[in-house]
């Protein structure tokens, strides 16, 4: 302390106390900075620990077999891919429910983790295709060693791309990422003639088909709810009439969705059986829900906030069922290449389909759940809150659209992405609200009220041009996500081919 800083007449004891206070303040700031750094390092530290355990877990099963090191490395890469799938893809299942406040973030994470793991372990299947979606011909690969390097390159490229997409806040299709990685590695190892270009063209078509279908279906349901319930004079009576049917449609749709996508490796009924199952579930759900909704709506005020509470439980159920189906359906993206590498190293052959060992499925299942807990909240907030504003009714339309669109597209043989459908449904809800509110009678009355005969002494109101140009979908997020979708396959293909060429040089 300088002489000028010394308080006039201050005693030595006071000066010593002030100096001690300053030192303590500095120590507190250092501790706070240390805690901040520790929090930032917790997630990557736990992820690295999981990857190390995945490698150790694999080494226990392969022991001292020849080329065991390749299996250990592949298990680590499979764990890395599973972490990224959990961080990015699962947000589509629970994001709308969180954004609408039907679920808390912690509740969504717990439900998604439990049902993702259950879906992967119960219905993930015992057999998986070694070449994702049949996009390259395995018979053209020269030998098993080349195949192993190609699969490892594809797996690493897909995981790196999904990691980057999660970092920038773009929900992308993990299936498309794996497809691009396998295509790039196949071209690098065999040549362009190895790729089934007809299959690739169908996958490219899904970039347009998936989000459009999801958005249109979600917008149609939202329009129905607005016209038949929200804008009715007696909203509660309208809700009693229509809500049981809407929730019954969801019950039927999710029953069919689970059978066709979530349980397809356990039970494969024909489409007539699926349709009968859906109709039976609709009738059963409607009969049960009709009196429940009537009782729940007794004493409710005639306002929109009252209506939203009727959709909370269906949203929670939809988040759980979507997570189960995703775990059953998409765990193969993480463990499929790993299972193929394990089989090829053990047998020395390249098979079109291989069994998935339990230890491989465990790495995929727990990796997805851990990735969801560590890094999932960022994408959950993006899908549920930052693209467009959600409430339980809009989130219900998104979830219902996701299930129905996948069912219809699968029945028609259309190539679709569940990620693109879910996010497209969010876009559809937002853009429909822009269109509808800009042309509705209530909106015109609002504009007229605030632009004609306005009190000059009153606070400034938004003018007509401002209201007309108001956007309910954030264009920056929209453009970022669309760009990420378009470049996913070519980006992962180029990355996989580069990784394969580097591995060739290193060998």
Structure characterization notes:
The chain is mainly alpha-helical and 507 residues long. It has a domain of 338 residues. Helices cover 77% and strands 1% of the residues. It is built from 17 helices and two strands. Strands 1-2 form a two-stranded antiparallel sheet. Helix 3 packs antiparallel against helix 4. The longest helix has 51 residues. It starts with 11 loop residues before the first helix and ends with a helix. The N terminus is likely disordered.
Anisotropy-based shape:
globular
- State the helical fraction: over 70%
Count the beta strands.
2
**Nearest-angstrom radius of gyration?**
27 Å
Q: Structural class per helix/strand content?
A: mainly alpha
Quick description:
By secondary structure, the protein is mainly α. It has helices at 12-62, 68-88, 91-99, 105-123, 144-168, 174-189, 197-230, 235-262, 271-296, 304-309, 312-347, 358-386, 392-412, 418-439, 441-451, 464-468, 475-506; strands at 127-129, 353-355.
């Amino acid at each position: 302390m300088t002489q000028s800083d010394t308080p006039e007449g201050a005693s030595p004891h006071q000066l010593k106390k002030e100096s001690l206070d300053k030192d303590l303040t500095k120590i507190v700031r250092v501790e706070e900075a240390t805690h901040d750094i520790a929090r930032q390092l917790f997630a990557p530290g736990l992820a690295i620990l999981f990857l190390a355990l995945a490698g150790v877990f694999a080494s226990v099963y392969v022991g001292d077999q020849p080329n065991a090191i390749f299996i250990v490395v592949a298990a680590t890469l499979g764990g890395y891919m599973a972490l990224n799938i959990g961080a990015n893809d699962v947000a589509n299942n629970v994001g709308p429910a969180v954004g609408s406040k039907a679920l808390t973030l912690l509740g969504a994470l717990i439900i998604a983790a439990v049902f993702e793991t259950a879906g992967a372990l119960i219905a993930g299947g015992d057999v998986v295709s070694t070449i994702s979606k049949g996009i390259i011909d395995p018979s053209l690969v020269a030998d098993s060693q080349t195949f192993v390097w190609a699969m490892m390159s594809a797996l690493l490229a897909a995981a790196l791309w999904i990691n980057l997409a999660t970092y920038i806040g773009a929900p992308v299709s993990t299936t498309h990422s794996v497809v691009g990685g396998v295509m790039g590695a196949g071209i690098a190892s065999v040549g362009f003639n190895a790729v089934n270009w007809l299959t690739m063209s169908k996958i490219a078509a899904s970039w347009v088909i998936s989000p459009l279908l999801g958005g249109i279906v979600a917008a149609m349901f939202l329009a129905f709810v607005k016209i038949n319930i929200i804008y009715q004079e007696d909203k509660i009576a309208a809700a009693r009439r229509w809500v049981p049917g809407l929730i019954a449609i969801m019950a039927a749709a999710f029953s069919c969705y689970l059978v066709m996508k979530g349980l397809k490796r356990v039970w494969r009924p024909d489409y007539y059986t699926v349709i009968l199952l859906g109709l039976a579930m609709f009738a059963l759900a409607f009969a049960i829900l009709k009196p429940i909704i009537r009782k729940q709506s007794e004493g409710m005020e005639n306002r929109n906030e009252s209506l939203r509470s009727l959709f909370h439980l269906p949203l929670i159920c939809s988040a759980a069922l979507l997570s189960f189906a995703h775990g059953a359906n998409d765990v193969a993206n993480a463990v499929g290449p790993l299972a193929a590498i394990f089989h090829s190293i053990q047998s020395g052959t390249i098979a079109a389909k291989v069994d998935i060992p339990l230890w491989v499925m465990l790495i995929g299942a727990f990796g997805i759940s851990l990735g969801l807990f560590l890094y999932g909240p960022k994408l959950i907030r993006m899908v549920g809150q930052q693209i467009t504003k959600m409430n339980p009714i809009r989130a219900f339309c998104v979830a219902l659209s996701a299930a129905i669109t996948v069912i219809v597209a699968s029945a028609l043989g259309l190539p679709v992405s569940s990620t693109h459908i879910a996010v497209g449904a969010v876009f559809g809800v937002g853009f429909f609200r822009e269109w509808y509110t800009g042309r509705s009678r209530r909106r015109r009355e609002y504009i007229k009220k605030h632009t004609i005969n306005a009190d000059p002494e009153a606070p400034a109101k938004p003018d007509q041009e401002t209201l007309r140009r108001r956007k309910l979908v954030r264009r920056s997020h929209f453009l970022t996500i669309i760009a990420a979708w378009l470049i996913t396959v070519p980006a992962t293909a180029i990355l996989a081919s580069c990784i394969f060429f580097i591995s060739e040089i290193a060998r």
